[in-house]
Amino acid sequence: MMAQACPISFETINEKVARVNAALTVLCMLVFVLTPFKAVILILGADLFIRAFLKPGYSFFSLLSRRILRMLNAEPTMTNAGPKIFAAKTGFVFTFVIGLLYWLGIPAASYIFATILALFAFLEAAAGFCVACRLYPFMPDFVK
Q1: Distance of CA 98 to CAs 21, 45, 112, 115, Å?
Q2: Where are the alpha helices (DSSP H) in 72-106?
Q3: What three-state secondary structure class fits 7?
Q4: Maximum C-alpha span of the chain
Q5: Which residues are CB-neighbours of 91 under 8 A, at least 6 positions away?
Q6: Shortest CA distance to 121 belongs to which of 26, 1, 20?
Q7: What end-to-end distance do the CA atoms of the chain give, in Å?
Q8: N or C: which end of the chain has fewer CB within 10 A?
Q9: What is the H or E stretch that residue 62 is in?
Q10: Cα(13)–Cα(61) distance, rounded to whole angstroms?
Q11: What is the Cα–Cα distance from 27 to 130, expressed in whole angstroms?
Q12: In what residue span(s) does the DUF4395 domain sit (predicted)?
């Protein structure tokens, strides 16, 4: 697990919040692919931008996730924030590509990218396996 790895960042985040955020991402991708409400990609993109480039705690998905976990009386499990922020950056790039492909009139390609993002988010939500986090140590500093 990332919690046992050497420090990548001195910030920590609640792993359980990240997993609920991932479940919300899966939900957004299902809405995008299966319904006519394509603007959900803008909502998800904005949230990922906040988590990736501003302050993760200010994202509306993170606020909702924390509220859900509070209602469930779930104890926090802290982990290094660096890989999770990188995962949010990766997710933001995916949402940008998904939206761009869709609005360029290539919906099939956007659905392929949406399915990949949904699969990665599902792995995080269901099994705690963060694909971007596994790639993080191998990324050059300018990407992190």
Answers
A1: 19, 10, 9, 10
A2: 81-103
A3: coil
A4: 45
A5: 25, 44, 48, 52, 117, 120, 121, 132
A6: 26
A7: 19
A8: N
A9: helix 60-71
A10: 14
A11: 17
A12: 13-138
Amino acid at 96: F
Cα angle 93-94-100, degrees, rounded to a multiple of 5: 90
Domain limits of the chain? 13-133
Q: How far is residue 52's CA from residue 132's CA, in Å, rounded to a whole number? A: 13
Q: Please state, in angstroms and rounded to a whole number, the distance separating the CA atoms of residues 140 and 51.
A: 20
CA 20, CA 11: separation in Å to the nearest integer?
A: 19
- pTM for the full model? 0.88
Return the pLDDT at 134.
85
CB within 8 Å of 124: residues ≥ 6 apart:
18, 19, 22, 87, 130, 131
